[in-house]
Amino acid sequence: MSEEKFTKRILCIGAGYVGGPTMAMIAAKCPKYKVTVVDINEDKINAWKSDELPIYEPGLLEVVKQARGRNLFFSTELEKNIKESEIIFVSVNTPTKTFGEGAGKSADLQYWEKCARDIRGSAESDKIIVEKSTLPVKTAIAMERILSENDKGLHFDIVSNPEFLAEGTAIRDLENPDRVLIGSKETESGLKARESIVEIFANWIPRDRLITSNLMSAELSKLVANSFLAQRISSINSISALCEKVDADVSEVAFAIGKDSRIGNRFLNASVGFGGSCFKKDILNLVYLCETFGLYEVAAYWESVVKMNDYQQNRFVQTINSALFNTVTNKRIALFGFAFKANTSDTRESPAFYVTKKLMEEKAHVVISDPKALKNAKMDLKGFNDLIEYEEDPYKAAHKSHAIAVLTEWDLYRELDYEKIYKEMEKPAFIFDGRNILDHQKLFEIGFNVYPIGKPHLIHFKEV
Ligand code: UDX
Ligand code: ADP
Fold first, then answer.
1. Which of 26, 116, 331, 334 has its CA 20 to 30 A from that of 135?
2. Which of these three, 147, 172, 205, is where a domain ends?
């Protein structure tokens, strides 16, 4: 299609887990729009142009291929692309600050602010700027101030369109979302900008799922949605600790309470803890926001969700340590999975990282296995690489090990030949199922000592 035939020119700054898949879906569904994704990282852009995409996400390559070269383009050229687009999505990273005021809690906005300044510097016409990254409430207002301080007489409307996709199911979530939220100022031009963004998604999503709100509500809803989801996991994880004490089974409890339609049955899987780039960061953002307004009780309430998650991860390591006769030193421990959840290569905030670090501190010999995340695991554990073994094949990882710890719920771990694995392990052999995905009774019958989460331990000798 020639340039003139495109009815909208959309730019996305940031080609990560959110920007890449979201823009690929928009381009695939809207062939009349020109969609360009830019990133400062040249290697990442080159990967987006190839068949080895920089992130693993089921179904993503097919969607990218549908539109790439037709109306979907990847580039490192920021200035030219800012000039020629009417709508700019900003999807750069907003990690938790590691320094200064708000360190450990508030979001580091340096990447976002740089984008705003780049846009202001290069723009030659009015634009709609769409916040895609999760940001602290009121960021839109700050951005508007930076952008409106231009001497070219340009007008910028800020729209908040938080992303609710989950990794591993991004394509399904983008194609058929529960809702899309679009927030803007309720001025004449703000409402017009809002409608422009609604128009994009209306190409494939029914109108009744396109929710609109004011700017603050949209920004806050994203933090609150993630905080509620994480809270459910911390709630069931807290109960898993109790189940282990009273011989209850957390899966049975979750099933029983989930049948109550007011509670619902999703997001009730007890685990070694939640990970991912969003949950902890967003809760801590909410905590910081509450503290800023003097709402200390509210802040403490939400912070306890993170504390419970830390407790659960720590409890898992303690279980390993005490089961292995209070010493893991020099013992070979195979970790099945390093990604923060199945079907992604992402390892950000993965419980596996915490577990590895703790086991390393105890001088265990850790062997990490994962079908997609080994590259990221190696980067995360740069300082320890000489001491850790990386082995994609789970059979080889488990060979001669004292224990296996399942940390990611990859399907492949359900289907392994555990008789074969057991034969090749040191005895007594232990398995710690941090995701409750294995057939515990069968493993016990094979000979393993089995430690699920929130269920009775199945052991062949008396626990001391
Ligand atoms: C989350 C939100 O779901 C998504 O809407 C938002 O846009 C980004 O943050 P994501 O981090 O990709 O998505 O993964 P999610 O499926 O929510 O899982 C987060 C963590 O919780 C994972 O570590 C997962 O293993 C864990 N989890 C999830 C549980 O431990 N138990 C559950 O029942 C569900
Ligand atoms: P998310 O999970 O929110 O998508 P990622 O870290 O996967 O976060 O992606 C964010 C991307 O934004 C990274 O690829 C990073 O290189 C890119 N980025 C950060 N700052 C800029 C910038 N000023 N211009 C272009 N790209 C940027």
1. 26
2. 205
Same domain, 293 and 183: no
**CA 23, 24, 26, 31 torsion-angle sign:** positive
The pair phi, psi for residue 141, each rounded to 5°, is: -65, -40
Q: Is the beta carbon of 164 within 6 A of some atom in ligand 1?
A: yes
Number of separate domains in the chain: 2
Is 439 found in the same domain as 337?
yes
Q: Report the pocket of ligand 2 as residue ranges, CB < 6 Å.
A: 13-19, 38-41, 44, 91-93, 111, 114-115, 133, 277
Helix (H) / strand (E) containing 37: strand 33-38
CA distance 391 to 334: 9
Q: Atom 2, ligand 1: which residue's CA is nearest?
A: 166
Name the residue range of residue 285's domain.
Answer: 249-464
The predicted-structure confidence for 94-120, as pLDDT tens digits, reads as follows 777 778 887 777 677 788 888 989 999
Q: Angle CA(377)–CA(381)–CA(387) in degrees, nearest 5?
A: 110
Quick one: what percent of the chain has pLDDT higher than 70? 99
Q: Describe the strand order of the beta sheet including 403-406 as a list of residue ranges.
A: 389-390, 365-369, 332-336, 403-406, 430-433, 449-451
In a domain, 363, yes or no: yes
Low-confidence ranges of the chain (pLDDT < 70): 1-2, 106, 463-464
Q: Do 375 and 259 fall within a single domain?
A: yes
User: pTM for the whole thing?
Assistant: 0.94
In 65-209, where do the E strands start and end? 72-75, 87-90, 127-131, 156-160, 180-184
- Asked if 38 contacts 11 with a C-beta cutoff of 8 angstroms, the reply is yes
**Which of 159, 282, 290 has its CA nearest to residue 225?**
282
Report the pLDDT value the prediction gives residue 1, as an integer from 0 to 100. 58
**CA 403 – CA 324 distance, rounded (Å):** 8
